[in-house]
C-alpha cells in the first residue's frame, strides 16, 4: 500500500511513522509513507495556501490550487486510482468497517487542513471520502489522519505477527473484547478467575463470550444494533438483565 499525506506540518508525522508497528510495516515493505508539505505546490509568489472567505467571516479558507496540483501529481504517479481522504470534523464518523475498506486499497491520499476551512470545490471535485474521528474538535486533521493510518496499516497482511490477533479485537468482531489476565494468578490478593486456570477450553471460550457480552451490554449497548446474537447469547443477556 502507498500512503501519501498532504499537510502544512509534515514534521508532526515523523515520530508516529518512525516507531513500532507503523515503522515495522514500512520495513517489511507492506506500506510506504510519503508526507508532503502542500505549500510547496503553491504557485503564489509567497507560497500562500489560504485566503479570506468570500462573503466575509472569521478564519481562513484553503485555496484549491495547491491541493488540486498536489493530488493530480500523486494520482498520475500511481498505477491505480487513489482514495482521497479529507480529514474534517464534518466528515463521516470513522469506524472499524471503514478501516477494513481502506485496508483493501492500493493507494490512499490523506488531506489534512489545520484550523483553516477547505474551499468547497476541494470537497466536490477532488475528494472521495470525508472522515472525522469523533465528536470533538481538533486543531487540525493531522492527528486524526495518524489515527486512521494506524488503524489501516495494522490490518495489512503480514503487519501483525500473529495473523489472528486482530480477529478478536474490540469492534472487529462487533463486541467489546473480554478481560485478559497474565501471571501471577494471585497479585496482592487480587486473583485471576478460576475458569482461566482450569485448562477447560470449552468453558474458557464460554466465559470469554459471556464477558464480551457483559462488557458490551454495560459500556456500548448500541453495538448490539448491528450484531447478530445467537440464541445462547440472547439467553445470557436476558439473565444479565434480570441481575
Ligand atoms: Cl478529521 N479534524 C478536526 N479538525 N477535528 C476533528 C476531526 C478531524 N475528527 C474529529 N475531530
**In which order are the strands of the major sheet placed?**
2-1-6-5-8
- The number of helical elements comes to 8
Main sheet specs: 5 strands, parallel
Cα gyration radius (Å): 23 Å
| Structural class by sheet pairing and helices | alpha/beta
Order of helices and strands: EHHEEEHEHEEHEHEEHH
Number of domains: 2
- The CATH topology of the largest domain corresponds to Alpha/beta knot
Could you characterize what this model shows?
- With 243 residues, the protein is of the alpha/beta class.
- It folds into two domains: 2-153, Alpha/beta knot, CATH 3.40.1280.10; 186-242, tRNA(m1g37)methyltransferase, domain 2 (Trp Operon Repressor, Chain A, Orthogonal Bundle).
- It contains eight helices and ten strands.
- It has helices at residues 14-17, 20-27, 64-77, 96-103, 120-125, 141-153, 201-219, 231-242; strands at residues 2-7, 32-37, 50-51, 61-62, 83-93, 107-112, 117-118, 129-132, 186-187, 190-191.
- The strands form three sheets. The protein has a five-stranded parallel sheet with strand order 2-1-6-5-8. The chain has a three-stranded mixed sheet with strand order 3-4-7.
- Helix 4 (96-103) links the parallel strand 5 (83-93) and strand 6 (107-112).
- Helix 4 packs across helix 6 (141-153) and helix 7 crosses helix 8 (231-242).
- The longest helix is centred in the last third of the chain and has 19 residues, at 201-219.
- The termini are far apart.
- The structure holds 6-chloroguanine.
- 6-chloroguanine is lined by residues 87-89, 91, 131-134, 136-138, 140-141, 144.
- It holds the Pfam family tRNA_m1G_MT.
- This is tRNA (guanine-N(1)-)-methyltransferase.
- InterPro entries: Alpha/beta_knot_MTases (IPR029028), tRNA_m1G_MeTrfase_C_sf (IPR023148), tRNA_m1G_MeTrfase_TrmD (IPR002649), tRNA_m1G_MTases_N (IPR029026), tRNA_MeTrfase_TRMD/TRM10 (IPR016009).
- Keywords: Cytoplasm, Methyltransferase, S-adenosyl-L-methionine, Transferase, tRNA processing.
- Residues 1-225 form the tRNA methyltransferase TRMD/TRM10-type domain.
Amino acid at each position: 500500500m502507498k500512503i501519501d499525506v498532504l499537510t502544512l506540518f509534515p514534521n508532526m508525522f515523523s515520530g508516529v511513522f518512525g516507531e513500532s508497528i507503523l515503522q515495522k510495516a514500512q520495513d517489511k515493505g507492506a506500506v510506504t509513507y510519503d508526507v508532503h508539505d502542500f505549500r510547496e505546490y503553491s504557485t503564489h509568489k509567497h507560497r500562500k495556501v489560504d485566503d479570506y472567505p468570500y462573503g466575509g467571516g472569521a478564519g481562513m479558507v484553503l485555496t484549491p490550487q495547491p491541493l488540486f496540483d498536489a493530488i493530480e501529481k500523486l494520482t498520475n504517479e500511481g498505477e491505480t486510482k487513489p482514495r482521497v481522504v479529507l480529514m474534517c470534523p464534518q466528515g463521516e464518523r470513522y469506524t472499524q468497517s471503514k478501516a477494513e475498506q481502506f485496508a483493501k486499497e492500493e493507494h490512499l491520499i490523506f488531506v489534512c487542513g489545520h484550523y483553516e476551512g477547505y474551499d468547497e470545490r476541494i470537497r466536490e471535485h477532488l475528494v472521495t471520502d470525508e472522515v472525522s474521528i469523533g465528536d470533538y474538535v481538533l486543531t487540525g486533521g493531522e492527528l486524526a489522519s495518524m489515527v486512521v493510518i494506524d488503524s489501516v496499516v495494522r490490518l495489512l497482511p503480514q503487519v501483525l505477527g500473529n495473523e489472528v490477533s486482530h480477529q478478536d479485537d474490540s469492534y472487529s468482531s462487533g463486541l467489546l473484547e473480554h478481560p485478559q489476565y497474565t501471571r501471577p494468578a494471585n497479585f496482592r490478593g487480587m486473583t485471576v478467575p478460576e475458569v482461566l486456570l482450569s485448562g477447560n477450553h470449552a468453558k474458557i471460550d464460554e466465559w470469554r463470550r459471556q464477558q464480551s457480552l457483559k462488557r458490551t451490554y454495560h459500556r456500548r449497548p448500541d453495538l448490539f444494533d448491528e450484531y447478530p446474537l445467537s440464541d445462547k447469547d440472547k439467553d445470557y443477556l436476558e439473565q444479565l438483565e434480570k441481575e
